[in-house]
Protein: Signal peptidase I
Amino acid sequence: MEKQVKEKNELWEWTKALLIAFAIAAIIRYFLFTPIAVDGESMMPTLEDGDRMIVNKIGYKIGEPKRFDIVVFHAPEKKNYIKRVIGLPGDTLEYKNDQLYINGEPIDEPYLDAYKSEITEGTLTEDFKLNDIDVNLKDDVIPEGYVFVMGDNRRYSKDSRHIGLVDQKEIIGNTSLIFWPFSDIKIVK
Structure:
């Protein structure tokens, strides 16, 4: 009889340990970090199709997106997109002759240098201004609570030029750690 009680207690202890482990894993995944797979080529050469990344979900609960952060957000197509933050609230934004201008100042985008050197005709990024994308913008300025995002593969990216500004409430988090494939583990900028 004593042996049966010990076996039941041991089984109960194992069950409790497993339930606690699953609860902790669920909390971490739901509130703190979650994996995501890159789907498509819109962020090449920075991210490749099939890269697996960790999304930091707590960073923007205590802070704001920063220029050039790579973010994951809920897109209008009921899909999650991975793009780079280019414009922040209060910014004016323009592309002219493959050069980014924010608030009238030219801004370097070193993550595009490798791609730009491969282009034999035309530009990587077509010319545009914010009010070309959204004519309702007041003074051609990104409003509070929104960001302008673009993929690094500018010719083949469905981004704010097509879907409009991204509400910061739709941003799941930022990402910079590739964890799979194993040979490509790295932190991207």
User: Anything to note?
Assistant: The two ends are 63 Å apart (CA to CA).
